Amino acid sequence: MSTLFLTVLCAVLCCAYSDSHEENIETLMDNVLVLKVPYDLGSQQYVPLTCGEAYQNQPVFWKKDGMELNPPLQGNQVRVLVEEMRGGNFTCHLGPDGEYLNHTLILVQLDPDNRTVILEERSTEEGHIHCSAPNYKGAFDCTWTRSQSRSNAVVLLVKAERNLEKIACELNADGSGVHCEDISCPYKEEQYRISLTIYIHSYSRLEAYTKAFYLSEIVRPAKLSKLQISEGTVFTWNYPDSWETPGSFFGLEFQVKIVSLHNSCNSRDHIQNDITEKTSYEVTIKPKRYVFCVQARDKYTKGPWSPWSHCTVDKKQVTC
Ligand SMILES: *[C@@H]1O[C@H](CO)[C@@H](O)[C@H](O)[C@H]1NC(C)=O
Ligand SMILES: *[C@@H]1O[C@H](CO)[C@@H](O)[C@H](O)[C@H]1NC(C)=O
Ligand SMILES: *[C@@H]1O[C@H](CO)[C@@H](O)[C@H](O)[C@H]1NC(C)=O
Known about the structure:
Residues 127-202 form the Interleukin-12 beta central domain. Heterodimer with IL12A; disulfide-linked. The heterodimer is known as interleukin IL-12. By secondary structure, the protein is mostly beta strands. It has 2 helices and 24 strands. The chain has helices at residues 2-22, 215-218, and strands spanning 25-29, 32-38, 44-50, 60-64, 67-68, 77-83, 88-94, 100-111, 130-132, 139-143, 154-162, 165-166, 168-171, 177-181, 194-202, 205-213, 225-230, 234-238, 252-259, 272-276, 280-282, 289-298, 309-314, 317-319. The strands form 6 sheets. It has a 6-stranded mixed sheet, with no helix packed on it. The protein has a 5-stranded antiparallel sheet with strand order 20-19-22-23-24, with no helix packed on it. Strand 11 (154-162) and strand 12 (165-166) form a beta hairpin. The relative contact order is 0.10.
């Protein structure tokens, strides 16, 4: 009696156990299953695979990453044991060495996915993904860097949306960035953030990286155009060509910095440092040899600065 009870109890528990486990399996996209495993070594889980309804009455044989399994795995519906991070590409075939029918890629993601190794972190504030836009029209670019030991990693999927509205993105040829276009009205106040998620895998290890931002946080003006010297000591420049018009609505402010000859514009050692909203600046310093540097940012949002533009002044010799 008690043996029977234990057997029944065990059966119930085992069932409950395997059922709860299947909640860790998610279909990320066609032919791709993601198994979420807790961060502990020695995880083992069966994953159900189906070759396809079309092959219900066919002799179906499975291979893993192109290799036959030992013992052989047969049947349209099978279960495979995934140990730790060892997923793989399971293909089903008509007969032991027959024609390819279908496949399922099993990837493994840690849950929580907070010990990432595939992408390099740019900085604590910026995280792993860097995004930038040249203006408020809705186009933006995001880039990332694979860590050296995971340079083979492949981007599987990129999802971008704002308040559940999809944003179209195109992956670069080398998989290290995306170009996206948010076509919703660009001039309205941004109520919701854009959320971007990159799904990237190295062998069977899948990691998801998400970044959420307002366009106004990533708008970085391009380099200023037509920087030149006119009337002796007055420098002038134009708004970048890619910046919004009218400039009165999307105003820029400029940082002007004068540094010693052969110093870089980023140098902390400066002769003069000024902020202006005008597109001209009169230099009144005594030295006749210096570098005139200027960069721009949105004057309302105080977003990121543009790259520097500069002119080198060596007495009468001016190079911009
Ligand atoms: C191939 O497998 C996928 C699941 O990985 C399934 O959705 C699809 O229907 C299958 N294709 C056919 C032709 O049965
Ligand atoms: C998995 O195998 C199928 C069939 O050979 C192939 O088309 C697919 O590209 C493979 N996927 C990966 C990620 O290797
Ligand atoms: C990841 O999350 C788990 C559970 O929330 C936590 O215990 C662990 O410290 C986190 N690890 C890192 C590197 O943040």
